Amino acid sequence: MASLWHELQEQWRNWAPILKVLSVLWLVLAVFMAVPWVVLILEEEPDAQAFATSIGIVLGAVVVSWLATLRAEFYLKPGQMFLVTTLSWVSISTLASLPLVLGGPSFPSPMRCSSLYQQSPRPAPPYYKISMFCLTA
C-alpha cells in the first residue's frame, strides 16, 4: 500500500507542472472569451448566456487545477514540454468551442432561404452574395 501511494505521488509530481501551465493558458482563454461576452451583453444577444456559462466552466477548471497544483514546482522537463504543447492545443480548442456547443448558432433553414427568393418580385441578377448565411440576390 505504501509503494502504491509513493507511485501515485511520483506520478502527480510529473503531471502537476503540466496542469499548472495549462491552467494559466485556460485563464488567458477565459479573459479573451470575456470580450465577445461583453459585446453580446451590450447587443442584447441571447448567446450571451452560452458565453457566460462557458467562461464559468473555464474559470472553474482554472481554479480547480490551480488549487490542485498549488505546491507543485514550476519546472518542466523536455518531455513534459511536448505534452504541454499537445494538451494546450487540444484543451484550448475544446474549451473555446463551448459557446458553440452550449448556445448553438441559429442558422436559417434552407427552406427559409428559398422563401426569400420566392417573395422577391424582381429577377435575380447574374451575381450573388452571401448574406446572413443565405445565398441572396
What can you see in these coordinates?
The chain is mainly α and 137 residues long. The chain has 5 helices and 2 strands. It has a two-stranded antiparallel sheet.
For the largest beta-sheet, the strand count, sense and barrel status come to: 2 strands, antiparallel
Spatial sequence of strands, sheet with the most strands: 1-2
**3D shape:** elongated
- Poorly predicted sequence stretches spanning 5 or more consecutive residues: none
Helix content estimate: over 70%
Which percent range describes the beta-strand content?
under 5%
Question: Which radius of gyration do the C-alpha atoms yield?
Answer: 23 Å
Based on DSSP secondary structure assignment, what is the total number of beta strands? 2
Mean pLDDT: 80
Tally of helical runs:
5
Structural class: mainly alpha
Span between termini: 73 Å
Order of helices and strands: HHHHHEE
For this entry, give a set of tags.
137 residues, two-stranded antiparallel sheet, 4% strand
Topology:
Blueprint: H1 2-42, H2 48-68, H3 78-96, H4 98-103, H5 110-119, E1 129-131, E2 134-136
Antiparallel strand pairs: 1-2
Summarize the structure.
The chain has helices spanning 2-42, 48-68, 78-96, 98-103, 110-119; strands spanning 129-131, 134-136.
